Each structure stands twice: as C-alpha cells, then as structure tokens.
Amino acid sequence: MTDMIPTWVDGRLTPVEKLEAHQKGLRHKAISVFLMRGDKVLLQRRALGKYHTPGLWANTCCTHPHWGEEALDCATRRLEQELGLPDIPLEFRDTVEYRADVGGGLIEHEVVDIFVGELPSGQEPVPNPDEVMDTIWRPLSQLMREVVESPKGFTPWLQIYLRDHAGVIFQDA
Questions:
Q1: What is the pLDDT of residues 35-88, one digit of tens each?
Q2: Cα–Cα distance list, 82 to 5, 75, 160 (Å)
Q3: Paired strand residues for 170
Q4: pLDDT digit string (tens) for 102-126?
Q5: Does domain 4-169 sit in CATH 1.10.630.10?
Q6: Is the pLDDT of residue 146 over 90?
Q7: Please, is 59 exposed, middle or buried when counting C-beta atoms within 10 Å of its C-beta (0-12, 13-18, 19+)?
Q8: CA-to-CA distance for 140 and 99, rounded, in angstroms?
C-alpha cells in the first residue's frame, strides 16, 4: 500500500504518495517532535535503510501525517512506532515551513507542526531498528555548537530548526 500524505496541489490539499511528493518537491504537511529532559534534547540517528538522509542525526521524531490524520495524533503515533514511547504529553509550539534538498534528487518542502514534550526520568526510548539506529541526549547549547561545527552529520531540517526557529521551539529550555 502506498503512503498517501496531505500535499498541496493547485492550491488544494490532496493525498499524494510520499515518495512522489519528495521527488517533485511538493509542499506537504509534516510533524516534528522534540522531547526534552531539562535542558537536554533527545536526538535520533536515522536508520541506514531510510530512503533519504540515512545515518544522520535528527530531532526526536519527524514524519508526515496520513491523509485525514490530525497532527497531534500523528506525533503521538510516531513516537510510539519509532521510539517505543507511548502517551507522552506534547505541546504544540508552532507551524513552520521550509524547503531543503535531502539528497538523491529528493526535496522536503514541508509545512511542519512542531511539538515539544518532557520525557520523564526513568522512561527511555526503545528504538525501532527499521526507523532509528541510535538515540542520544544532548544539552541544547552543545547541540547548537555541534550542528554549526559538523553540519553534515545532521539532517537539513534539524539545522533549519536550530538556526531559524530555536527561540520558539525551546522557549522553556
């Protein structure tokens, strides 16, 4: 079955297959989640089997809602699917738009609902190896430095979030 995501075509929201949206650089809906523990951010390293940006570090979780799926429901679903973290309370922070070349002739042109949550102490991610090859906690200030010093190790969208939207995303950190 194809993965149909909400995509704007001729000014109308239309279901389009995810790979096609990326091949054509079509503007589409997405979600991104940042889980915190104090001043630390939970990062995931994308599995090597991912069709774009494999092996790069990204924010805690990011994906595209299914056609007709609410953004918060999508964020909650993917935290459990990717990281084995069910029922984490999430707070909506902002909707941002970006366009980035993610390699292999693919473009992410996303309208992203960003959510932030606090992962309770004692609860740790259990990565799904099809999605995530590793996780790590990073103090926000250290992460900001690392992304500037070694950008090739991080996904383009994480670089954009930290450069252009950190004040809104991490307003409490």
A1: 999 999 999 999 999 999 999 999 999 999 999 999 999 999 999 999 999 999
A2: 18, 10, 22
A3: none
A4: 999 999 999 999 999 999 999 999 9
A5: no
A6: yes
A7: buried
A8: 24
The residue whose two tokens read 């995931």 is 44
pLDDT on residue 173? 59
Q: Which residues partner with 32 through β-bridges?
A: 62, 114
Domain residue ranges in the chain = 4-169
Beta-bridge partners for 57? 45, 154
How far is it, in rounded angstroms, from Cα 41 to Cα 12? 35
Torsion of the alpha carbons at 81, 19, 70 and 37, rounded to the nearest 10: 50
Catalytic positions? 62, 110
β-sheet bridge partners, residue 106: 103
Asked if pLDDT for residue 1 goes beyond 60, the answer is no
What are 163's two structure tokens?
A: 């450069």
Tokens of 145: 């430095």
Identify the residue whose tokens are 């606090």: 118
